[in-house]
Each structure stands twice: as C-alpha cells, then as structure tokens.
Amino acid sequence: MIRAILTNDFGGKVFLSLLFVITAYVAFANLMLPADHALHVSTYTVTLLGKYLTYALLAIAVDLVWGYLGILSLGHGAFFALGGYAMGMYLMRQIGDRGVYGDPVLPDFMVFLNWSELPWFWLGFDQFWFAVIMIILVPGLLAFVFGYLAFKSRVTGVYLSIITQAMTYALMLAFYRNEMGFGGNNGLTDFKDLLGFSLQSDQVRVSLFIASALALALGYLSCRYIINSKLGRVSVAIRDSEDRVRFIGYRVDYFKLWVFTFSAILAGIAGALYVPQVGIINPNEFSPINSIEIVIWVAVGGRATLFGAVLGALLVNYAKTYFTGAFPEVWLFALGGLFILVTIFAPNGIIGFFKRRKKKETQTAEAQEVEA
Questions:
Q1: E-assigned strands of the chain?
Q2: Is the pLDDT of residue 62 over 60?
Q3: How far apart are the first and last CA of the chain?
Q4: What pLDDT is stored for residue 1 in this prediction?
C-alpha cells in the first residue's frame, strides 16, 4: 500500500527517506556514542528535534485542509492544545504517592486550590489507553461538531477563518480560569513518568523522538492516501470551485467535514507528543497567534505539497529558536517580514518556487531543441 501511495511522488520518497536516516542517526548518536564524541547528539538536541517533528505533523494537518480543501483554518492550534491537555492530564495523574485504592493523589494545583475530590472529567486519565482515546476523540469531536454547524450553514472564506480563530480564542479564555480544573494560568507541568519510565531519562527522550518521527511519517502517508483517493480528488475540486461541485450533486459539507475532522485528529496527536517533550501545557497554546504561525509555516514551505509544510515548519521554528535566543526583540518582525517576502516573491512557497524554476528550465530546453 505504501508503494502505491508513493507512486509518482518523488518528493515524498525523498522526505520519508531523509526522515528515516535522520531518526536512526540521532537515536544512535545519542544512545551509543559517548558525550565527548564529536558526532554525539545531546539529549537537549534530541528533545528540540522531537518538538520540531510534532510541529511538522501539525503543519501537515493544516496543509491538508488549506492546501487541498481550501479552508484557511486559524484554529488548529486549539486541536493541538486539546491533544496536549489530554496527554498532560495523564501525566499529571502519574505524579505523587498512591492513594488507598491505588489511585494517584490529586494534582498539586487542585490541592493548592483546596479541591476535595477529582473532577469527573479527570476520571480514567490514570490509564494510558484512556488518554490515547481522549487524544483522538476530544479534538475530533470538537472539529466534527464545529464543522457540521459551519459547513451546513455554508460558511466559507474569510468568515470561516474568523470563526475558527474565535473558537480557539474562546477556549484560551476558558482554560485560563482556575475553576475549569485544568491548572488555570499555569497549566499542567512538572511531569515525572510516562508508562512507568522517567521522562528525564535519555532512553525515554529518544523514544519520544522516534515516536514523533513515526507519527509524522504515518501522518504524511495517511494524508497522501486521502489526496490520491476519491475523497482527495473531490476535495481539490471543492477548493477550486465549490459551487460547481455542489451543482454536480456532491454533498460538499460531508466531504469538508470528514477531511476537517481527520486533520484535527492529526493536530491532537501532534499536541500529545509535544507535551511530554517540552514538559508543560498551558492556555497560551490556544493563543490565536500560534494558529497564525502554523499557517505561515505552510505558506513558507508551500501549500498543497505536504512535505513543503514539513520543510516550512522546520525552517521557521529553527529560525525562531535562533532569533529568540540571539535577538528576541526582532523575532516577530522577522517572522512578519518572512511572510511578506514569501507572499511577494514565492507565493507558492519554497517548494513552489523550485517547481516553477524547474518548469521554466524544462520549457527553455524544449524550445532550444525545437529551434535546433
């Protein structure tokens, strides 16, 4: 099946091959090479790369709905954050001594707020399998309900973008409130164990990095499979001319709904992998500016390419890491300038720029052959 998905997808083959080689090298260099070796990769670098990979998966989720369906979502940061909170709730319930019945004690922020018992929506999060279900179910259910109402009402274009942004902003305000039971302004942090293993160990850090790489590869293959299917072909037609597709007889709202929901699930998985690697999840992850940054990643790399979204996420976040450390006061200006430059000189992103250049070279060569 993988071979069928990657047929005539040279860029995807290169991307997956590079991902495999880099993942194998980083894992080997961290665990097998001594710290003083020139080729050793530090645990800090492994964690940073793992975080970048979760961002890349999030960028693929956005590219699926924006590049191939034509929906400019400014709310995917919400799905990312909800998946992160689901994982954070599991990690919080692994902290502390066990109670009389073997259950973990109340999270420390609940003790600080004088809560007497665990809220009902925290029940079950002491089990990893339950947390995995919630990581998929919560973002997916929110996207399904939101998408059903929006697409049934035929909300499109800039209006839909504004509504998605309003959704994530409303969630941010809600999660800031202490009485919501999610840690308020401080969020969830100080995680200790994952599946009984210390999150501080090199082996767990490398395992999370490998899991992020695997999730990115599977996310890419899943999206590529959708794009090559009837669902993907109809989605592209909806992007290009929604009214025409509707007049032909297709239920446009259904196609939009399923692609949008699947994209939200991918974003939730990315958030779940992000949290144990960075060690915190708080309401700032719902901030609308985060969702706008994701769109910039995709625009920089190239819409409707998938691997272009990965490239954009990696490049922009590496630049962010550098600039926020060396020149923290200029990062937002640099990000805005980058977006403007890409919009003017490479409207189809980096991948689109090279594709257009290659096409021109091919046309020039063909013209010279005809003249000769």
A1: 188-189, 193-194, 197-198, 280-281
A2: yes
A3: 44
A4: 55
* Alpha-carbon gap, residue 327 to 193, rounded angstroms: 35
Place of tokens 């958030």: 271
Those residues with Cβ within 8 angstroms of residue 297's Cβ, 6 or more apart along the chain or in another chain: 55, 59, 62, 309, 312, 313, 316, 317
Q: Are strands 197-198 and 193-194 parallel, antiparallel or unpaired?
A: antiparallel
**Angle in degrees, CA 81, 82, 84, rounded to 5:** 60
Per-residue pLDDT tens digits for 227-244: 999 999 999 999 999 999
Structure tokens at 48: 């940073």
Q: Is the pTM of this model over 0.85?
A: yes
pLDDT band at 323 (very low <50, low <70, confident <90, very high): confident
The full 3-state SS of 272-313, as one line of letters, equals HHHHHHHCEECHHHHCHHHHHHHHHHHHHHCCCCCHHHHHHH
Q: Which two tokens stand for residue 228?
A: 């090559």
